[in-house]
Amino acid sequence: MVIEDGIVRSNSALARGIYRMDLDAPEISASAKPGQFVNILISSDTNPLLRRPMSVASCTDGCIALIYKVIGTGTMAMREWQTGDTVSLLGPLGNGWEMPSKKLPILAGGGVGIAPINYLHEELERQGVKHLLIMGARQADEHFLSHAPDKNIILTTDDGSTGIKGTVVDGLTQLCEQSTYEDAVIYGCGPSAMLTALMSYTNERQLPCQLATEEIMACGIGLCQGCAVEVKTHMAISDRSYRKRIKLACLDGPVFWAHELV
Ligand SMILES: Cc1cc2nc3c(=O)[nH]c(=O)nc-3n(C[C@H](O)[C@H](O)[C@H](O)COP(=O)(O)OP(=O)(O)OC[C@H]3O[C@@H](n4cnc5c(N)ncnc54)[C@H](O)[C@@H]3O)c2cc1C
Ligand code: FES
Questions:
Q1: Based on the domain organization, do 85 and 150 belong to the same domain?
Q2: Rounded to an integer, what distance in angstroms lies between the CA atom of residue 241 and that of residue 80?
Q3: Which ligand is nearest to the CA of 57?
Q4: Per-residue model confidence as pLDDT tens digits over 59-112
Q5: 37-49 average pLDDT score
Q6: Tell me, what CATH number does 119's domain have?
Q7: Does ligand 1 have an atom closer than 6 angstroms to the CB of 237?
Q8: Which atom of ligand 2 has the smallest separation from the CA of 248?
Q9: Does the global pTM surpass 0.90?
Q10: Last residue of some domain: 93, 117, 142?
Q11: Is 250 a pocket residue for ligand 2 (Cβ < 6 Å)?
Q12: Which ligand has the nearest atom to the CA of 220?
């Protein structure tokens, strides 16, 4: 983990409300794995005080990409950054996805969760690993990929304006009804309602599933305890200390196996 001054290469809209920023950051890009994130200093004064966590969405040739949704003070400021601007990045942070061995990876991303899924998708393409990608959004104009089932890319929209009508989990259900994916491993990232639905779906079917949680974070390095995630423990009640029940999304995650999470 390093603090590196990234230099903005480009920063523009990808889809409605969603932006992509490419930054020259040779040190971070040399070691960032899919599923890891950077913590970004928004302003050199104290407003906003805390860095903002963003997943690495792509990583090539000394450059990392971020894909971000504008929701508040920090992301509004990021949208204004111009080519050549310097940005303080802390990273790479977190554990990253556990890469598949022999199973078929099915990647499911929705909302702000598309970034870590995108990097995993690119890495699997680079390694020539066959996989399926399901991306969900509310409407067609929030997507930046095209629905292409023949290329194993499936889009879903809440209003049916492109791809399958429904959520990412509806898309996954349809896929699993059409074929048997007993050997699949699911990778999911998105809003908490989507993660909860994916967790129930995969736990019920005993499908292995890794979820990247996007808990609200502060320090990003295990100091503030602000990103606590409760995990299942099979110990006697008397042994269930805080340390055994609680993991930190920034250090132990953000990726967890779904069956571990409460
Ligand atoms: C490990 C990690 C990776 C992330 N990766 C990405 C990414 O790749 N792309 C992306 O767009 N976003 C990502 N996020 C979420 C992103 O960090 C927040 O959207 C961002 O910090 C909001 O900052 P802001 O100043 O614009 O909003 P604020 O003004 O801080 O908040 C606006 C509103 O959003 C809520 N909010 C803030 N952060 C979160 C959060 N993490 N989850 C849910 N609600 C939140 C606040 O409570 C408030 O209601 C990630 C979060 C984590 C923890
Ligand atoms: S964000 Fe501070 S401990 Fe995780």
A1: no
A2: 45
A3: 1
A4: 998 999 999 999 999 999 999 999 999 999 999 999 999 987 788 999 999 987
A5: 92
A6: 3.40.50.80
A7: no
A8: 4
A9: yes
A10: 93
A11: yes
A12: 2
